[in-house]
Design goal:
154 residues, Rossmann fold, five-stranded parallel β-sheet, 5 strands
């Protein structure tokens, strides 16, 4: 039986590449992002695209419920939704910085909290959180919160 995988941030970059790779290797795939028009090409790989606004709990619940209704379970959750802000610290509006934190950090936690109770019914589950090297290496004009820029231990 195929394992079901749910990948967020599947409209571009690493999230999209991860979804395609896993679909090509026999997993039942669901890819989610807020820009659903950028995921239509995923259907050719057998990936079910799902519109998702990771900062809205109702949207997260709808996506979770859709997958559980269609597939019955989620064995693997890949949290890749996220983005970076460019600009000097003093030029980045706090509203944008808070939204970035909501997407990059709180969104992954919200999704995990909502899917974990049902995931625990399976004998095999994994949650993979993918962040950015930008949280460990400083770049000019990238002082905003990056996915991994919270305190960490090497």
């Amino acid at each position: 039986m195929k394992k079901t995988v749910f990948v967020t941030g599947a409209s571009a970059g690493i999230g999209k590449a991860t979804a395609i790779y896993l679909a090509q290797n026999g997993y039942q795939m669901y890819g989610a992002a807020r820009r659903s028009e950028k995921m239509q090409d995923l259907k050719a790989y057998g990936i079910q695209p799902i519109a998702l606004e990771i900062t809205k709990e109702e949207s997260v619940k709808e996506a979770k419920n859709q997958i559980f209704k269609q597939a019955g379970s989620i064995e693997i959750l890949v949290n890749k939704a996220g983005f970076g802000l460019e600009g000097s610290i003093e030029d980045i509006p706090m509203e944008e910085a808070c939204y970035q934190l909501e997407v990059n950090v709180c969104g992954a936690m919200r999704l995990a909290q909502l899917v974990l109770p049902k995931m625990r019914e399976n004998t095999y589950v994994k949650i993979v959180n993918i962040s950015s090297v930008g949280g460990k290496i400083a770049f000019p004009l990238r002082g905003g919160i990056m996915p991994a820029s919270l305190p960490w231990r090497p």
